[in-house]
Amino acid sequence: MAFIPLSIAVLFISSACGFRSFGLDSELGGLGPHSVPISDADRTKIDKNVTTHIIANPGDSVQFECYATGNPTPTIRWTRYFNPPDPLLPNGEKEYNGNILKIPSANSQTAGDYICEAENMNSDDFLHYSLEIASEPIITEVSQTHVFGSYILLQCTASCHPRTTFQWYKNGELLTMKEDDPANDQFVPIGIVLGSFGFSTKDNDFEGTYKCVIENHLGKDEKVFEINGSAIATPK
């Protein structure tokens, strides 16, 4: 009769997800886990069908939700994601446990990125959230440039969020710009919009009052260019 050394004996136990094997520890005289398959139902999995990006008006009350499945039931933990210098949550803590993260008053301090981490003994999962604060448009810079000899380029730069586009007017009438016009609006760094309009002084009717206008649901701003046959007056 052959004997199996206790140090390498393995006991297989049938389970719903396959076999769980336990090595028999000869020194401790007990069973120790050797290899335990984890079913998909046991793994932590965050529900991705939730709102993860919010653009809020200053002072709005908003909340993010995070739910996860797994066995055992996963714990939920919220943290800020790389928001120096103070990575605190709106409640003043570095961490928060719970499915719903509430932000009572959205502002520049609460804007940024948040992370929901769900974890149980088998695995963990993460989901990224972001909060942005809307702002009214403010034109911060205007300029005019002579390019290609007779070609004049008017430019207005504004800060606003969410970003929107400029509209250009001449003598009170809305100007239509072609989609392939190189002077079309450009989105530069986040929250900045560069609007441009170009024309040639060879055109007989280039003189007049030009205006750039930018508007969103929080406000509106505009600047005026007075164009004559010899010079461009300082925008106002």
Question: What is the secondary structure topology, with strand pairs?
Answer:
Elements: E1 10-15, E2 18-25, E3 30-35, E4 45-46, E5 53-56, E6 62-65, E7 68-69, E8 75-80, E9 96-97, E10 100-103, E11 112-119, E12 124-133, E13 135-147, E14 151-161, E15 167-170, E16 173-174, E17 186-187, E18 192-200, E19 208-216, E20 219-227
Parallel strand pairs: 5-12
Antiparallel strand pairs: 1-2, 2-3, 4-7, 6-10, 8-9, 8-11, 11-12, 13-14, 14-18, 15-16, 15-19, 17-18, 19-20
Write up this protein:
It contains no helices and 20 strands. It is mostly beta strands and 236 residues long. The protein starts with 9 loop residues before the first strand and ends in a 9-residue tail after the last strand. Mean pLDDT is 79; it is low at 1-34. The protein is elongated and about 85 Å long. The chain is 0% helix and 51% strand.
